[in-house]
């Protein structure tokens, strides 16, 4: 599967390189022939696209390297660096086009459009739209941000070429040259797209929450397991597209033996790997009291205190030790709460006040995936 994905990215990128280089040749020739700075800029933009595809191939090959001692989880994240580089090229192309368009406004030149110019512009638009649609669709299907960025860039090129074509038609019909002004508007659009792509790439590198749908599916699947009363603290680490390693806590009755818990843990690991391709390398256990009604009452009282505060999303991992006089649990507070630490402290103080003879521990957990 991994090799197939890599081959797909390389093939699509090679197709983009060939298509862009052909367009570069035709557009550069027509641009110099017609004295159109817009068409020449468009040709330069196509050249940057070819460079982007080359970088995508290099990044994909590097990201596909086998894990080694220094990088035991592989090199998958390098693909995010590739995506960032391609996004930067998109931004650079937009800035370059903006600069050239502004120069053309300040020092206008008379273009000389011909029938062959219009034909090549139309052909370039068709090729770019088709290429952009295909590359972007394939990128989304195989979860390749680099291909999505390249496909988006191809769409932007098509829009840029449409503006150049429209300017040429208007000039031929009315003698009014608008290509520089249209070029400014399109350049600003390309710059915005570049910034958005860079932001997405940086987020992937820094680390963002996994899609809520995947998180919910995994938790729901884990909770289906017999004797599992709840699934919490799911954390997934992204080591490249479609490569997640993670950990989770499960609540099970305190009547189970270690051997029984081990079997449950192994079944969960196998099931989640088969269904979602996620490796749960760690499954922690919370023991749920089923023997002492007095402990159950204390747990319910503490739960009432915690959920009396607005912004609390979840409580789990309740632990009570009569011998050590210890009470502990984890809570999750909505990120929308302005001062989560203060709220957690206030909850702790309320519980500690009610159970003065106990050492109370309240852990502010992170809602990393929901």
Write the layout of secondary structure elements.
Blueprint: H1 2-34, H2 37-63, H3 78-106, H4 115-141, H5 145-174, H6 179-206, H7 212-223, E1 230-238, E2 244-253, H8 258-276, E3 278-288, H9 293-307, E4 312-321, E5 326-333, H10 340-354, E6 359-365
Parallel strand pairs: 2-3, 5-6
Antiparallel strand pairs: 1-2, 4-5
Helix pairs in contact: 1-2, 1-4, 2-3, 2-5, 3-5, 3-6, 4-5, 5-6, 7-8
Global mean pLDDT: 82
- Please tell me the CATH architecture of the largest domain by its name: Up-down Bundle
Overall helicity: 55-70%
Radius of gyration: 29 Å
Q: State the separation between the terminal residues, measured CA to CA.
A: 28 Å
What does this structure look like?
About 65% of the residues lie in helices and about 15% in strands. With about 375 residues, the chain is of the alpha/beta class. The chain has three domains: about 1-205, Up-down Bundle (Alpha-lytic protease prodomain-like); about 210-290, Alpha-Beta Plaits (2-Layer Sandwich), CATH 3.30.70; about 290-370, 2-Layer Sandwich (Alpha-Beta Plaits), CATH 3.30.70. It has a three-stranded mixed beta sheet, with helices on one face. Helix 2 runs antiparallel to helix 3 (about 80-105), helix 3 (about 80-105) runs antiparallel to helix 6 and helix 4 packs antiparallel against helix 5. The longest helix has about 35 residues, at about 1-35. The two termini are about 30 Å apart. The mean pLDDT is about 80.
